[in-house]
Every structure is written in C-alpha cells, then in structure tokens.
Amino acid sequence: MTPPSNKTDSLEALRERLRNFVRERDWDQFHSPKNLAMAMIVEAAELVEHFQWMTEQESKDLTPEKLAQVEHEIADTFVYLLRISEVLGVDIIQAANRKIDLNALKYPVEKARGRNTKYTEFE
Amino acid sequence: MTPPSNKTDSLEALRERLRNFVRERDWDQFHSPKNLAMAMIVEAAELVEHFQWMTEQESKDLTPEKLAQVEHEIADTFVYLLRISEVLGVDIIQAANRKIDLNALKYPVEKARGRNTKYTEFE
Amino acid sequence: MTPPSNKTDSLEALRERLRNFVRERDWDQFHSPKNLAMAMIVEAAELVEHFQWMTEQESKDLTPEKLAQVEHEIADTFVYLLRISEVLGVDIIQAANRKIDLNALKYPVEKARGRNTKYTEFE
Amino acid sequence: MTPPSNKTDSLEALRERLRNFVRERDWDQFHSPKNLAMAMIVEAAELVEHFQWMTEQESKDLTPEKLAQVEHEIADTFVYLLRISEVLGVDIIQAANRKIDLNALKYPVEKARGRNTKYTEFE
Predict the structure, then answer these.
(1) How far C98 CA sits from the closest chain B CA (Å)?
(2) Model ipTM?
(3) CA distance A60 to chain C (A)
(4) How many folded domains does chain B comprise?
(5) pLDDT along chain C (123 residues), means of 10
(6) Domain encompassing residue C95
C-alpha cells in the first residue's frame, strides 16, 4: 500500500522542524508569546519594507530577485506565527477557518461586493 | 475504504476557501501585494496589542477569554499571509522550509545555544 | 514687553504633560522601553489601517472625518515615541537632526534625486 | 539684546530641514500618506527589533552602543511621523495635546491608577 502523500502533513512536518530547531538551541526560554509577537511583527515589517515606495502595480510585477527576498520575509513571518501558535496551543488552520466563518457573517456578499469598506462602516 | 483524512490538504482547503471568499466579494482589485502587506501588519499589531502591557509570564498564562481573542488575531494575520503568498505565487510551506535551512547555517547549534544574539553580532 | 511665545517650549510642555499624566496614574511601572515600543507600533499600525485599501491618491484626499481619525493615530504614535524617548533619556529633536545629517551622506542629492532606491542598492 | 533661543522653534526648524531634504531629492512624488505610513511602521519595527528578546529590565539598562542604535530608530520613526503630518497638514503638537485631553477622560485617575487595563475593559 502506498504511504499517504507527504503533503498530508507538510504543515505538521514544518511545525516539528521548528520545535526541534528551537529545542536544539535552547531558545524556548526566549519564546514567550509576548516576545514571539514582537519578533513576528518585525518580520512582517520587513515584508512591508519591500513595498513601501512601490506603486500597487509595481508590487504585482516583482523581479525574480525581489520576489526571492519577499519570499524570505513571508517565510520569517510565517515561522513566528507558527511558533506563537505552538506555544499557545492554537491550531492555526482551525483558527483561520473559524475566522472565515465569522467574516462571512460580517461581510455578506451582497453588502461587501466590490467595496473596501470596514463592516462597521456599512450604512 | 475510508477516504483519506481531510487533514491531508487542510492548508490547501483553507487557501481555496480564501480564494472563493475574495472572488465572491470581488475584492481581488484591492488585493495587491502592497495592500495585503499593509493589512497583514495591521493584524499582526492587533496580536501585539494583547501583549503590550503584560509581563512575559502573563503572556504565557492567558485566560480562556484572552486566548480566544489572541486566536482571532493569529487567524487574521495568517489569512493575509496566505493571501499575499497566493497573489505572488509563493508556496509558503516550501518558503518556510528553505528559510529554516538558511537559519540553520546562520545559527549553528554550538554558537547559538541559549543565546538571544543576532547572528551578525556573534563575535 | 511681550512674553516669549509659548510656542518656544510647546514640545517641552507636551513632554511635561505626559510625565504628569503617567505619574498620576502610576503607570511608570508598565512603561519599560520594551513595552512602550510595542505600544508605539500598535498605534503606528492603527495609522496604517486607515490607508491599507486606499490608493495613494485617495490617501492624499481624505475627508475631514477621516483626517480627524488619522490625526488621532498620529498623536497616539507620537505620544509613545515621546514616552520612549523620555524613559531612555533621548533628545528626540537632536536625534532626528543627527539622523538627517547621516541620511544626507547616504543619499547625496545627485544620486538620490527622483529615485526610490535604498542607498544600499545604488549601483 | 540676545536673540531668542533657537530652541523656540527647534521642531519647526526640523520640519523645515525635512521639507528641504525631500524637495532637493524630488521625493515628494513618493511621499503619499499611504507610503509614508508604511515607511513609518517599518522604522517603528526596527525599534521594536532591538527589544524583542530582552527582558523589560534589560530594555531599561541599555549599553551606550545599543542606546545609540535605538536613538537612530527613534529618529527615523519621528522623521516619518513629521513627514506624514506635514503632507496631511496636521499640527502634531496640537494633535497630541488634544489626544491627551481625550485620554484624561477615558482614563480618569481614580479608575486607571496602577492598572494596565484598556478603558473599554473597566468594569
């Protein structure tokens, strides 16, 4: 019988790698949710930095070199987001699915279509 | 025969939900990488906000109510991170694995163990 | 003779108000540089939030209502920036002047004119 | 007769330097409020980065070298905050004073003393 595709648990495999990476370096002591949230927003800002002087169109047409840099910042942000989920015991996939359920209520298709308005500002 | 666990593609299923959510609302027009990076850091900051006046220890001992709020902010940040990966064609799992490979070189166990120092500051 | 304009020390007067505000509420205990930096970026993100789905042009043409909201976020960010300067003993005006001196060296007019390139990327 | 202290308008002098700096480099074209808000939060994050793995106590006891670095990030954040105020026509001192007036109402001394609770959470 063929084993299940390793795509099955690619996210779980990544989480496991991260756990080991941190444990080997004895970094758990620094990984409080407070500190991880700070580290995460710092990486998020490095992603923002790439786009700050670009037009929206330019941000869609990245050179391969720029895209590779952007990819690293996405990865760094994701890694800290996984770590913070880990130390808080949050299932990030489930959390996202629940949030989409909520957003579907806050942004019903008929009201939100084509509008960039926050739901609290719907008249 | 039992179908494969839907955990197999839980991340892909989430991405698909997001794609549909955005398409139904005709929000692609707002989802340039530049704008998504902004939206993402705004959500990241809402996560930071929960922890700003807490001690590190307090950030580890969240009440269930606070944890539920934190979970929503993690989800929001993750959702925008997935969206930006989507519009840029980035495989977020692969990107994270590559970054961990690089970090393993920048932070070798013997140098990094128990230290909170940036690799550029290793003497 | 007219007294000196109270514009003389409007920044110092503001700092003094902030010191008193914090002292009366016994908030110094929470105002470590670490915490203030977190609070500051949270306010900065609230400023970013107003602009995330706007075009650049829209961000220049704010309605009076939107401008008033933006003004509050600028104020909040500034207040925490003053607080962090205060607790660290940084003269924010002097620091800014020094940084402009440095930037003038990093971005000489003839190289930087009309370009949105980071100085490390000048060829 | 001695001229008025140039401290009188140190903030105005700084704003004027910034205006000239930007004009000489023809950077006004990039300085939409949207872009400046992004640049500002990027600098704010560089400030946060210095503190992310420190304890609160460590963030109070910076070495002179670290303090000098922190000072640069404070300056960068301040510079973009002044720029965004400039392009939007906001008087940053007045805005801060107004915000403190509001905060004094939201956080009355008797309710807020010694508490790190957001005003919306006062019981």
Answers:
(1) 24
(2) 0.91
(3) 14
(4) 1
(5) 53 94 95 98 98 97 98 98 97 96 94 87 72
(6) 14-111
